[in-house]
């Protein structure tokens, strides 16, 4: 099993969650669409070749974003990652995938 953590602006929170859930994330026992989320602030500086969703090139930006944590079984983690990237508005979304210990 894996844990997926991603960061997304509020404007796309529900659509990105729907995409990763449709690909198989968020299943825990007899429940689906399980996640934990909290709003925070992301920081970034788009460099010369970037096509930022928000912010200006070469300028430091801080924007409200949501951190979403969910789980995913081994057999669908690739599809879930692909769904996240396809649904996300950023050209390079920030995300972590952690393999969970089998205890």
Automatic annotation (TrEMBL):
Q: Which InterPro entries match?
A: DUF34/NIF3_sf, N-reg_PII/ATP_PRibTrfase_C
Q: Which Gene3D superfamilies does its entry note?
A: 3.30.70.120
Entry protein name: YqfO family protein
């Amino acid at each position: 099993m894996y844990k997926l953590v991603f960061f997304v602006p509020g404007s796309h929170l529900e659509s990105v969650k729907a995409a990763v859930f449709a690909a198989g994330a968020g299943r825990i026992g007899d429940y689906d669409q399980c996640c934990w989320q909290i709003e925070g602030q992301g920081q970034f500086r788009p460099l010369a070749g970037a096509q930022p969703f928000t912010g200006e090139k070469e300028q430091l930006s801080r924007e409200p974003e949501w951190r979403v944590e969910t789980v995913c079984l081994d057999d669908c983690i690739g599809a879930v990652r692909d769904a996240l990237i396809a649904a996300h508005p950023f050209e390079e979304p920030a995300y972590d995938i952690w393999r969970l210990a089998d205890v």
